[in-house]
Design goal:
Elements lengths: L1 H11 L8 E3 L1 H18 L3 E5 L7 E3 L1 H18 L5 E11 L2 E10 L6 H4 L10 H6 L7 H11 L3 E5 L9 E7 L11
Helix pairs in contact: 1-6, 2-3, 3-6
């Protein structure tokens, strides 16, 4: 709780240092997911990884973006029932005349009701699944993830129809660093 509050405080006051170095999302995602496979297996969950081959690099803070992935993957692992599936993938997309690189965490858990979806990124908000399952947490994770992604000029999207077993998908999109093309004049 204290760590989460300190992180939000630093972000709120623009005191969190965010390095902007070239990063390969496929490497970050692959390495992080590989470390979590034993945890998923211990919970009798299937954790799969799908990496897009054509994803452009981004500029960002490795540790902070790994924290976002950690928050989303931890939530998926915590709320997916035994025998369920969690999939982490990377994607590239063009949106508003810009290239984006991103990652998604999808699960086969209980989903999130339409009533709760508008509150997900509020500080200290814990949804029905968290309250009913008594899964430990502070309700700060998604608020922290949203702040970090916003500081990277990115966005988080959430999809869930709220039907048990249909799960939830969180997608993080970050501006891609497109290599400059050299044009030879005629």
């Amino acid at each position: 709780l204290i760590e989460g509050l300190l992180m939000l405080s630093r972000l709120d006051q623009d005191r969190a240092e965010i390095s902007r170095i070239p990063l390969e999302l496929n490497k970050i995602v692959r390495d992080y997911v590989a470390d979590r496979i034993p945890l998923a297996e211990s919970r009798k969950l299937t954790l799969t990884l799908n990496l897009a081959p054509d994803i452009c690099p981004i500029k960002g803070d490795h540790g902070l973006l790994e924290q976002v992935l950690s928050i989303l993957l931890t939530n998926a692992l915590n709320y997916t029932p035994e025998g369920g599936l969690v999939t982490v993938s990377t994607h590239a997309n063009k949106y508003n005349a810009r290239l984006w690189s991103g990652f998604c965490v999808a699960d086969s858990g209980p989903g999130i009701s339409a009533e709760e979806q508008s509150h997900l990124f509020e500080r200290f908000y814990r949804g029905k699944a968290a309250r009913e399952s008594k899964t430990p947490g502070t309700g700060l994770g998604l608020a922290i993830a949203m702040e970090i992604v916003s500081r990277h000029q990115g966005r988080i999207e959430m999809q869930s129809d709220g039907i048990t077993g249909h799960g939830t998908q969180f997608s993080v999109w970050l501006p891609a660093e497109v290599p400059l093309m050299v044009v030879n004049p005629l």
